[in-house]
Amino acid sequence: MLVTQVQTIGISTLLSVIHFKESRMDRIFAWDDHHNRVVYRIPGCTHKDGREDSDLSPVWLPAKESELPENVCLEDLRRVSVEE
Q: Which residue of 9, 11, 32, 42 is most buried, as measured by CB atoms within 10 A?
């Protein structure tokens, strides 16, 4: 079962961040301006390469537009620039 939740963050600028739960994993989707693609992160997740995702050091992973929750479009996503 997919649950869609929209959360707004920021102090002076409000950014929309899309969350959804799938198999108890909370994914945050964004648009990568640097590579022109959808990306996601899983806060608190430690990846196989040892990197831990945190708000100070997010680990953005590539995603497909088809993975976005229902009724969510690219314009809804927060914009980030993922450097490799």
A: 32
> Which amino acid is present at 59?
V
Secondary structure E strands in the chain: 3-9, 15-22, 25-32, 37-41, 61-62, 78-80
Whole-angstrom Cα distance, residue 7 to residue 17?
A: 6
Looking at the DSSP assignment, which residues form a beta bridge with residue 5? 19
CB 10 within 8 A of CB 3: no
Residue holding tokens 């995603």? 63
Q: What share of the chain is helix, strand, coil (3-state, %, to 5)?
A: 5, 40, 50
pLDDT digits (tens, 9 = 90+) for 13-57: 233 334 444 434 689 999 999 999 999 999 999 988 888 999 888
Q: Are 75 and 65 in contact (CB under 8 A)?
A: no
